[in-house]
Task: structure prediction
Amino acid sequence: QLQLQESGPGVVKSTETLSLICSVSGGYISNSYNYWTWIRQTPGKGVEWIGDIYHSGTTYYNPTLKSRVTISVDTSKSQNQFSLKVRSVTAADTAVYYCASRSIHWFDPWGQGTLVTVSS
Amino acid sequence: DIQMTQSPSSLSASVGDRVTISCRTNQSVSMNLNWYQQKVGKVPKVMIYSVSTLQSGVPSRFSGSGSGTDFTLTITSLQPEDFASYYCQQSYAFPYTFGQGTKLDIK
Result:
């Protein structure tokens, strides 16, 4: 059964880069037909899709974030992970960040989520 | 972007009630509409995908309907474990978007 787990700093300073990793178990990113997704949630803006990556490296980004976001995948022998970087963060980037698997058109499963707070 | 509007934003109901939650989009999403349940402090979980297909393990008291721009999530005979927030999500076009959520609580 596919499981995802986010990891990374819980606090990032304003103007710096937020970096998160999603570790996948129960399946291999490299031989899956799934897309691998980052989503964030805030009380104010609700649930926001950040972007997807396929194991080939093909990415799709939300245009509102595209200029600041990079999603990449690491399928090397010892890794089965994908990552998120958000550059030049502000308080508006404070959110719970989830990684998820996109099977065709819906997100399932999701990781447990990780709260990232942008500090000044 | 495709805009999603859910109504109501909050809803109070009793165990055993039948409730409906509406999701409207500002352009057609065909049948590419999914519903998620999120309990407090928990992860969103897909309940229904492609308008009306129940995810494995989801009780049959949940159902979805609609097409184009108007969609409905119906829960018949509410159970205590159903009190949660519900979100619709379109997967017709990038960027994928979510509704603002409907919080269902106990009356």
Summary: The longest strand of chain A covers residues 95-103.
